[in-house]
Amino acid sequence: MAELDYKIIVGLEIHVQLATRTKMFCGCELVFAGEPNSRVCPVCLGLPGALPVMNKQAVEFAILTASALNCKIAKFTKWDRKSYYYPDLPKNYQISQYDLPVGENGFIEIPLADGQSKKIRIRRVHLEEDAGKNLHSGAFSQVDLNRAGMPLMEIVTEPDMNNPQEVATLAMELQRIVRFLGVSQADMQKGHMRFEPNVNVVIKKDGGEFKTPITEIKNLNSFKALEKGTAFEAKRQLNEFLERGEVMKSGNKKTFGWDDERGVTVLQREKEEAHDYRYFPDPDLVPVTVDEKWLTDIQSGCRELPLAMQKRFITDYSLNDYDAGVLTADKDTAGFFDEAVKAGGEPKRICNFITQTGLKISGEKNCRVSQLGISPQRLAELAKLVAGGTVNATAAAAIFEKMMQDDSEPQKIAESLNLIQKSDEGELAKIVDEILAANQDAVNEVKSDGKKSKKAQGFLMGQVMQRTKGTANPQVVAKIMNERLK
Amino acid sequence: MKNRGKTVITIDMDKQKITVERVKTVAKLARLNLNDAEISQFSAQLSDILQYIEKLNQLDTAGIEPLAHCLPVSNCLRDDIIKPSLGTEKTLSNAPDSDGQFFIVPKILDESGNL
Ligand SMILES: [Zn+2]
What we know:
Strand content of chain A: 15-25%
Mean pLDDT of chain B: 81
Distance between the termini of chain A: 95 Å
Largest sheet of chain A: 10 strands, mixed
Radius of gyration of chain B: 22 Å
Oligomer: heterodimer
Distance between the termini of chain B: 40 Å
Structural class of chain A: alpha+beta
Helix content of chain B: 25-40%
Number of domains of chain A: 3
Shape of chain A: elongated
Bound molecules: zinc ion
Low-confidence stretches of chain B: 1-11, 111-115
Largest sheet of chain B: none
Helix content of chain A: 25-40%
């Protein structure tokens, strides 16, 4: 085949699930897995008479993201009903934003392989609610509405990407941004981020310019799939053009699904008629006006600079300046610490886990503390185990290391490693007595109360710890020993 | 703000007559099964309604901002606080069919017959 002069054109539609606690218009809890239809109420079930009320956090998350994407933030936005019939949409319409999105006309800068960067224009950022989930089984379909009404942020780029790598790079950059802002967990495998590229190819041939029909790719569940799917689709279109001369004509966009196993895109549907969504303003929801003060609050409050964070750790968490400085050296570690404390871990203890164990290991592995495989919630649980006397500090370090490969509860890990702290006085007294009997010299040393008394006591304590593999509660052992050696 | 008026229904003199075709399209979108008699009946009724509302076109609305909501209120927001949900049993209690966990609906196919 002769060298062909062509250019790939890609725009992205991205859905980001926001990390709020509750749904967009009701107080139902967001759960990833959970008993089907357990997080449902009259509002998200679409029962007559139920009134939706906007989640302030979701609105702020969308405004914050739109700001970070350099969008013009709308001073006035409203909600519209997008009508369509599908069992996972119990109201028969989706609440979305049609002509007045939260933000418009922004851009995102993405790093290119050659060290340069490229600006990709952002057309719009808007909020909407997610639909439920359909499961197809046999002659019927099952519907789970736990996801119905979850807050989604839709981001639409202009078709400014010109190769599959740029598409994947934009996706990763956007993931970094929404995670940094804390507006989404942005886990692609869990469907927190869904990327739908719109792809076509412009070909220069025989002095003319030809455009292939634009297609949309769905079902891309990883960055790799996004890149491979886009590349495959562009190539497929190019072949269609060369073999059949297929070019863009008026009509409806075709949707292709990515088959990850076979590494191909498969035609999903070819709509005979365009969807007629019949958007109209939702009478149940009043508009949102964003004044300068609110906008400033959103933009400053959530984008906490390291210095502000350091000060907050000192005042709110009673850390010393040195510890707070170490933790805020990078945003990732600071955020990880903050989350663990918010999950109920005692600040100083969490700080010690991170600065004494976490940073050492992450330094060796050349990664971030948050990438060690331990979630802030799990670390908080470990801190509670220490605080409650279930394990001691030595054991905690061992449990920490095990937790990097095992996401079980720290309590379970402690049990499996036999690291639960022994605090039973009777049991420990027996061990102490045995140790004392076997080390008469040291006992005499302690009792003499001479220069070497302290050292001998330390030796005896060490023996008890060795015998119990470090699980003896040091306070209890010290108490028993003091009684015996009076 | 150039699109502000986009979703507001504008009445076009030429389109005020609701054709039989139009009724069929709307009925299809609303998943309504109408017979021929109903279609011609609704076509006439809907045309009458539009003709009546057409009176509004006598008003001069030049320079008036389209209304997004009829109440002079904005920013009814709630804090992101979890409230109890109904729970699976109650949620499914009004369902025409369920298996105790899910709503059961006829097999879902899109217009072209794909799952
Ligand atoms: Zn709900």
